[in-house]
Amino acid sequence: MTTRESGHFLFQLLTIFLIFVKKEYMLYQNYSLIPHNTFGLNVATKYFFEYSSEEELRNFLKSELFQSNSYLHIGAGSNLLFLNDFNGLILHSNIKGIEIIDETDDAVVVRVGAGVVWDDFVAYCVKKSFYGAENLSIIPGEVGSSAVQNIGAYGVEAKDLIFKVEAIEIVSGNKRIFDVSECEYAYRSSIFKHALAGKYFITYVQYKLSKKESFNLSYGNLNANIEGEPTLQKVRQTVVSVRESKLPNPKVLGNAGSYFMNPVVEKSIFDKLYATYPQMPYYEVGDKYKIPAAWLIDQCGWKGKSLGNAGVHEKQALVLINKGTATGADIVHLEQAIIADVETKFGITLHPEVILVK
Q1: How far apart are CA 259 and CA 321, in angstroms?
Q2: Which residue of 8, 148, 196, 223 is most buried, as measured by CB atoms within 10 A?
Q3: Which DSSP helix (H) or strand (E) runs through 283?
Q4: Are strands 44-51 and 26-32 parallel, antiparallel or unpaired?
Q5: Are the C-beta atoms of residues 312 and 338 closer than 8 Å to each other?
Q6: CA angle 312, 315, 320 (to 5 degrees)
Q7: pTM for the structure as a whole
Q8: Which pairing describes strands 162-169 and 86-93: parallel, antiparallel, or unpaired?
Q9: Is 350 left (phi over 0), alpha (psi -120 to 50) or beta?
Q10: According to the 3-state scheme, what is the secondary structure of 25-81?
Q11: What is the reported pLDDT for 26?
């Protein structure tokens, strides 16, 4: 056990105590959020509630504690940046389970609990020879968050796989099942982040995957790194290797993966930039162009640089890191400096993918 892990363990023993345990509730007070934010920030929450079923969640939504406190629902905390301790209630889903609920000769529908680790689901698909999720290997987080954030990598997004989303309405406790067409998915966006933000808690996500061989190897250098004929396992191993070579392990160096979204610009803006920077990488998105935020940041000289205890990773400019004792404010200070430099040099405003929790 490392010094940090032993310190965290002792902190939990000393400061976390069980308020009450019933069949319906598991509630803690003064709960450390170190294991629930991948930046590794030393913050805590006044109350922490974890549920393992829709029934437990419904019962808790009726409680006075829930009704009288500000709240935040989190997944693995891989997309959160806490500025301070959270003076309220944090909820977390521990709904598990992966089951096939429909199957044909060509496809399969898999129902997955919101609390399942995302990469465990990807590994399951690869093992079962279900095609579609392999490009999304080792993206940090949990299944519920995939449906909110519309996570993506290597030319694949969660929306390409999602069939239905099951959720509980916070006000009524009623269950609603959303068809993927109702979720208003766009780049790192969904109806759950905007129009219905704060109105539903996702409990299960249904994914539709192909049983017939089908690969998406066109994005980046994925195809070039696969030796011989592609297989599901080869694609997964390649994605894992490429990501691990560029992205730091949050257990070693606190980070939230890709900090900024890749900007998508109009053709007129792209043409002007490309005339000045013909070496600029890009991807066509309909009649617009996606420019890698990492390239923009690198061109501004930020890769490997720091401001105090917050820095930009030396191998991937899209990743902001906690060098050990950074606070949320330190990371935001770095974020704002990068945004300002990119806007000055390129006329493009970067937008964080990470959610700020004040």
Answers
A1: 9
A2: 148
A3: strand 283-285
A4: antiparallel
A5: yes
A6: 25
A7: 0.88
A8: unpaired
A9: beta
A10: CEEEEEEECHHHCCCCCCCEEEEEEEECCHHHHHHHHCCHHHHCCCEEEECCCCCEE
A11: 81
The angle formed by the CA atoms of residues 202, 206 and 212, to the nearest 5 degrees, is 155
CA distance 268 to 289: 10
DSSP 14: H
Cβ–Cβ < 8 Å for 198, 165: no
Report whether pLDDT(5) > 70. Answer: no
Mean pLDDT along residues 74-94 = 97
**What is the average pLDDT across 207-212?**
98
Evaluate whether 170 touches 61 at the Cβ level (below 8 Å).
yes
The 8-class DSSP code of residue 287 comes to T
Q: What is the C-alpha separation between 110 and 97, in angstroms, rounded?
A: 10
CA angle 255, 258, 261 (to 5 degrees): 140
Average pLDDT for 67-84: 96
Long-range CB contacts (within 8 A, 24+) of 216-223: 216/135, 216/154, 216/155, 216/156, 218/155, 219/135, 219/154, 219/155, 219/156, 219/283, 220/154, 220/155, 222/135, 222/154
CA angle 277, 282, 285 (to 5 degrees): 140
Let me know the angle formed at the C-alpha of 118 by 257 and 38, rounded to the nearest 5 degrees: 35
Residue 123: Cβ within 10 Å count: 16
**Dist. CA 356–CA 91, nearest whole Å:** 17
Is the pLDDT at 129 greater than 50, yes or no? yes
From CA 182, how far away is CA 240, in angstroms rounded? 32
Tens of pLDDT along 154-204? 999 999 999 999 999 999 999 999 999 999 999 999 999 999 999 999 999
Which residue numbers are catalytic? 188, 258, 353
Select from 311, 262, 306 the least CA-distant residue to 284.
262
Residues 199 and 172 sit within 8 Å (Cβ to Cβ): no
Distance CA 324, CA 65 (A): 35
| Residue 106 DSSP one-character state | S
Pick from 314, 301, 308, 289: nearest CA to 344: 301
